[in-house]
Amino acid sequence: MAxxxxxxxxxxxxxxxxxxxxxxxxxxxxxxxxxxxxxxxVLRYLSNELEVSLVCLGVSEAxxxxxxxxxxxxxxxxxxxxxxxxxxxxxxxxxxLIAAMPLEKKSNLKVKSLKQILALTGGVTSRIFALxxxxxxxxxxxxxxxxxxxxxxxxxxxxxxxxxxxxxxEKSGV
Length: 174
Known about the structure:
Layout: H1 2-15, E1 19-22, H2 33-50, E2 53-56, H3 61-66, H4 70-75, H5 88-99, H6 111-121, H7 125-142, H8 149-154, H9 158-161, H10 166-172
Parallel strand pairs: 1-2
Helix pairs in contact: 6-7
Pfam family, one: TniB
Protein name: NTP-binding protein
InterPro entries: P-loop_NTPase, TniB
């Protein structure tokens, strides 16, 4: 196992790795205490050995996961992303996100729809992305090829669909 570790570190060094990004680091808490310690030790080791920056992303529990290693916790700063607000930045982000979707037509959403997106998602980035992705898929399946104000008005969050699994089937016409 040690030879594999040496090879991996050498390969990462040869690649010129400068940063290690770990998404959903809060999932570390699902492991046993021993597994958590091992993972945090590996992170610290790689950071030291390769002299790279660490970026760990996750929900609020991510901070608890990192605090399991005091030395590692001292190296990382906490930054909390605020929820989106009803402003020009939010509107620009929605337009950029929709433009990145493989839709044939332009989506011309009214201000009311933008406010509804905020209300449905609580301004949480991952929920906004899920909503736009879901609406884009529906637009392609239905042949609309754009996200409409009506589609936003009828959209239900994933967590609501679990209560009524037939809603999704009825909506897509399957």
